């Protein structure tokens, strides 16, 4: 096995893109994005997708490759990403996987957990309950049926709460009980690099990024997507808050402050997820890239 997948993870706004491009240039390889928010071609500003200049510096895959109107699951991504890596490794001993979406990183590096087939009627019933009673009702059901997963899931992510509930109801077992399967063996060596900083630095970088998004035209981007605001792809930080502003529920300053707050919470969840992975070697965001390259070379097969 002489194929090496360099995995770059960390909280949002920490500098994963710039590091990945620098590593791609050094190892003369390509980048596979595992950032589930950057898959959608209609969403570029609010997801902080790589700029055209950054995309020119290194070949990227899975950046704005599908529409918000398409269904695209983490299982779809696992298959597509592994197919792409198989293709890339035919001509190169290195490839880079980058992202802040822990579930999508794990799908590629460890494989997804296997869940039983669930009757579609259960999902339909849960969707009706959500529309009539709201997310809080689903959250309380999950707390009863699977208190373990209730403690770790993003309770404001309707899709994940609903998915966990349908598995609990359909199988009669807690959703979390299906999350303990052994990892799948991949036909390549995996080298995980984590980038982080002091909490206040992360928060400052988040605030700066939000300001840059607004300057780049975030409001116009969200306005153009308003007719599709019910789609799951748009139930994400940076979009749902502006929808509240457009619906005249919030003023603009409050909406922007909520984006910053919810992004900080997202960054905290990202770090909680990644810190549990003992295979990640952590570096400060200002770390000299030469030391990271040296670590990668030592860890390569």
From TrEMBL:
Residues 35-38 are annotated as: Interaction with substrate tRNA. It is an enzyme of class 2 (transferase). Its EC number is 2.5.1.75. InterPro entries: Dimethylallyltransferase, IPT, P-loop_NTPase. Keywords: ATP-binding, Magnesium, Nucleotide-binding, Transferase, tRNA processing. Catalyzes the transfer of a dimethylallyl group onto the adenine at position 37 in tRNAs that read codons beginning with uridine, leading to the formation of N6-(dimethylallyl)adenosine (i(6)A). This is tRNA dimethylallyltransferase. It comes from Aquimarina atlantica.
């Amino acid at each position: 096995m002489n194929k090496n997948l360099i995995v770059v993870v960390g909280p949002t706004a920490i500098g994963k893109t710039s590091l990945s491009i620098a590593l791609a240039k050094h190892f003369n390889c390509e980048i596979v994005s595992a950032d589930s928010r950057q898959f959608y071609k209609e969403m570029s500003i609010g997801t902080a997708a790589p700029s055209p200049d950054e995309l020119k510096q290194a070949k990227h895959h899975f950046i704005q490759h599908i529409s918000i109107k398409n269904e695209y699951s983490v299982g779809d991504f696992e298959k597509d990403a592994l197919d792409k890596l198989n293709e890339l490794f035919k001509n190169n001993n290195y490839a880079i996987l980058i992202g802040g979406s822990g579930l999508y990183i794990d799908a590629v590096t460890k494989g997804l957990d296997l869940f039983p087939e669930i009757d579609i009627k259960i999902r339909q019933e849960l969707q009706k309950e959500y529309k009539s009673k709201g997310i809080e009702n689903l959250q309380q059901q999950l707390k009863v049926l699977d208190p373990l997963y209730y403690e770790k899931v993003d309770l404001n992510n309707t899709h994940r709460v609903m998915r966990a509930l349908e598995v609990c109801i359909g199988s009669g077992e807690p959703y979390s009980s299906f999350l303990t399967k052994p990892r799948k063996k991949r036909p390549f060596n995996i080298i995980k690099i984590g980038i982080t900083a002091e909490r206040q630095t992360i928060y400052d970088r988040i605030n700066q990024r939000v300001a840059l998004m607004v300057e780049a035209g975030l409001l116009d981007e969200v306005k153009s997507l308003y007719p599709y605001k019910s789609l799951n792809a748009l139930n994400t930080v940076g979009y749902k808050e502006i929808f509240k502003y457009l619906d005249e529920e919030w003023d603009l300053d409050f909406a922007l402050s909520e984006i910053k707050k919810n992004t900080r919470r997202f960054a905290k969840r990202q770090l909680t997820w990644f810190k549990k992975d003992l295979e990640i070697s952590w570096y400060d965001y200002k770390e000299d890239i030469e030391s990271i390259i040296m670590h990668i070379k030592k860890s390569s097969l």
